[in-house]
Amino acid sequence: MDQLCIVTTGGTIDKIYFDDKSDYQIGEPQIGGILHELGVAFRFNVIPILRKDSLHITAEDRELIRATIAAQPARHVLLTHGTDTMVETARVLASLKDKTIVLTGALSPARFRGSDAEFNVGCAVGAVQALPPGVYIAMNGRVWDPSRVRKNVDANRFEAI
């Protein structure tokens, strides 16, 4: 991997809560800081394009995400995304060929102690380097085919369908 291209769209990984998880805003992308703290041995660039909860991502937003990734010369792309509609965005990205694209996010904000953000980012970084071209989701310690996974909202985890 020459360089990892990271595209950010917001989601829980970047949320800042002001009072008991009710009033929030999407803050600056956290992934660059996570990778710097972990001392990764590869170059990366971060392209922040949206700051939205994934429930508010529209078809136009998904096209912007697809077009942004398509325009990048990098073959390896990591996309941070909210978990509620991650699968829908992954399906839109399936039209992109010759790139390995891995979507990841977090079920609790990266700023929270005990967040799954670092673990999911680490899993996604390994997956984007090891997998053949295609679109994948890295959540809950697994790498998923977007056509065979869903988010179980009640259990707050991804699971096979």
Automatic annotation (TrEMBL):
GO terms for molecular function: asparaginase activity. PROSITE patterns: ASN_GLN_ASE_3. SUPFAM superfamilies: Glutaminase/Asparaginase. The active site is at T12 (o-isoaspartyl threonine intermediate). Residues 4-160 form the L-asparaginase N-terminal domain. Coiled coil: none annotated. It comes from the Bacteria. Substrate binds at S54, T83, D84. This is Asparaginase. The lineage of its organism: Bacteria, Pseudomonadati, Pseudomonadota, Gammaproteobacteria, Lysobacterales.
